[in-house]
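<context>
A single protein, sequence plus fold
<sample>
Here is the protein in question:
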Amino acid sequence: MQRNPAGLVAQEFDVLIIGAGAFGAAAARDAALRGLRTALIERADFGGATSAECFKMVHGGIRYLQHADVPRLRASSYERSALLRIAPHLVQPLPIAIPTYGSGRRGRAFLAAGATVYDLLTLDRNRGIRDRHRQIRRSRFLARARLLELFPHLRAPGLTGAVVFEDGQMHNPARLVLAFVSSAVDAGATACNYVEATKFLWRDSAVCGVRARDRLTGEEFDVRARLTLNAAGPWADYLQNDPQHFGEWQRLPFSRDAYFIVDRAPTSEYGVAVQGLSRDKDAVLGRATRHLFAVPWRDKTLVGVWHTLFPEFPDGAHVRLDEIETWMAELNSVYPTLQLTPSEVTFANCGLVPFGETATATELSFGKESRLVDHRAAHGVSGLVSLVGIRFTTARADAARALDMLLRQLPRAPRGLDTALLPLAGGEIDDFAAFEAQALRTKPDEVNDVSLRALLRNHGARYAQVLRGDADAGACIGETTTLRAEIRHAIEGEMAVKLEDVVMRRTELAAGSHPGRRALEATAMMMAQHLQWSDSRMREELTALERTLARHLARAPAEAASAPQIVRARHGAMLANSRA
């Protein structure tokens, strides 16, 4: 993966995909595997917005029982199975306990009936998954005593136990998006980050590409394509602010879905669903309020998700400290023994997903399906389809549907492959536990076990490419377990061009907390040496990253190190390297 904007103007593409979140990246992989000349552009970094900041869950559709929507339930279960098959290093099962109280809709009998129906509707959930550790087990029960061993904070009158179902969890959503992008490039696609589509190009009433701007250099150029897929998520509507071609402009409702990470070690492998205060007005069946989740992730706990109507420009989405305090008060009021405090929050994430079209600030209507628009039918515009995805889980299938719709405009469109069976880049693993054990036995002596395990989870079968050719493969960045070899690989082979790309998405440096100033400066110096940054550019990158981290931490950014300190440290590192 080499960044080459010039490659975008060298030819006319069959398909241009705007937006490289989960849906756009999946579409690029699918299109390239069909043999189409494919271009993928992203205004920021790959997966750098909602996809990277999702709740890390791979939903199997149990929530759709509340809406009596069996087709979507079945489709979600199928897509969860697909991700467990094609990305076994990045997705694994997660058991979730739903506490039961007394009788009625909060009781064991009601939930047990729902869980049984769900099991029956998803009997084929493990078809094709050979790795037994990636198979979704059927629902089961926990007795009250066992539940309280796992979650002491649930002690409350009327507690009778819990029903347990399983979903999936992503180890690293940003790297899962990158696996789709890498697979697309492997199949022949031209991909480029930090290239923004500013307007469509037209041939009469047909879209024939976009005017684009390189956000790193400011250069503008045309990217021409026979067909265009607008998969720009919450930015998609803004590209269609053109009354001449699309009629009166409107931005459909979006939800800012948010959660936070607390520095509490998980008490078990189970997540737990607790009842919050918001309601889903469209639910046919279900309990009184929507569930919030507290789930284990690495050595921390994720808590969420909260939904808020967000009518502003997408770039402004973030989580405020007062919101975290409000959410904690909600949880602590429902489960007083939790006693969560804002000081425990190490990170807060949010992303924008479609709300139901009847949503208002006071009456929430949760989005249930991705938005797929054929603009020939909607506006008399050919050559263009829009896809705004709602669940990372269904990105692969929704991308295939969008491509099928778009390719109907070609006289002889190639048929798609079954991408639910083809491993993503790094996913060529039949048994992850055996793969991990073999890698640990044969690892270089200088690489510690913790770093190697993380490398295996993030890069899968391609982990050796990260270590290959690195003279100091076992050296880590600062006090972290991230290898310097990962930084080098991100720059040389994964199109990382900004400090934020490496720290926030290519590595685990900022996986749920601030990695420390020392680690940031060490990473910045490595990138400066590889990319020939000036000292001022390095300071700008550090300042921008601290600003990003401050938004996630809901606090003021850290003070940047003074220029002489950075310059002396950089020159000292260069001198040491030259002597070595």
Observations:
- Confidence is low (pLDDT under 50) at residues 559-564, 571-580.
